[in-house]
């Protein structure tokens, strides 16, 4: 469920940039640019989405994301942890295991990803089936 706010959404484009100066296009706003850069990295969106299912161990993530290698998975997890979007917990089992879980901030993207999923179902799948 998406909760609508009476506040205006943040602008997608910066107040300054080529369009403001009479150019051909506008510059993305800094927040949108940041999230697009993050999600645009290979595997980041898949790892982030997988973590939405709840706490998961590194080995389970590795098995659950076909095609990802240990180095890339570790890099993406470290990045999410460094940004405060996920937590890393070492579990003192035999063998030692590492569990990852989204923080409140990391999980807050769920409504946006749900909207993107709906958009993809409505537009990308139709474009693919019509050859466009």
In short:
Helices cover 48% and strands 11% of the residues.
Polypeptide structure, described:
This protein is mainly alpha-helical. It has a domain at 43-130: Winged helix-like DNA-binding domain superfamily/Winged helix DNA-binding domain (Arc Repressor Mutant, subunit A, Orthogonal Bundle), CATH 1.10.10. The protein has six helices and three strands, in the order ααβααββαα. The protein has a three-stranded antiparallel β-sheet with strand order 1-3-2. A hairpin with a 5-residue loop joins strand 2 and strand 3 (97-102). The longest helix is centred in the last third of the chain and has 21 residues, at 110-130. The two termini are 31 Å apart.
According to CATH, what is the topology of the domain at 43-130?
Arc Repressor Mutant, subunit A
Low-confidence segments: 1-6
What's the SSE pattern? HHEHHEEHH
Second rung of CATH, namely the architecture of the domain at 43-130: Orthogonal Bundle
What proportion of the residues is helical, as a percent range?
40-55%
Instruction: Estimate what percentage of residues fall within beta strands.
Output: 5-15%
**Helix/strand/pairing category:** mainly alpha
Radius of gyration: 18 Å
Return the CATH class of the domain at 43-130. Mainly Alpha
């Amino acid at each position: 469920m998406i909760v609508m706010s009476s506040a205006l959404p943040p602008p997608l484009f910066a107040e300054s940039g080529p369009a403001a100066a009479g150019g051909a296009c506008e510059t993305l706003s800094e927040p949108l640019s940041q999230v697009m850069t993050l999600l645009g990295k290979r595997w980041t969106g898949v790892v982030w989405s997988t973590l939405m299912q709840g706490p998961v161990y590194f080995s389970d993530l590795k098995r659950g994301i076909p095609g990802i290698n240990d180095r890339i998975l570790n890099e993406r997890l470290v990045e999410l942890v460094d940004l405060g979007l996920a937590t890393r917990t070492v579990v003192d089992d035999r063998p030692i295991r590492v569990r990852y879980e989204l923080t409140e901030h990391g999980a807050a993207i769920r409504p946006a990803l749900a909207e993107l999923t709906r958009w993809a179902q409505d537009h990308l799948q139709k474009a693919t089936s019509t050859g466009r």
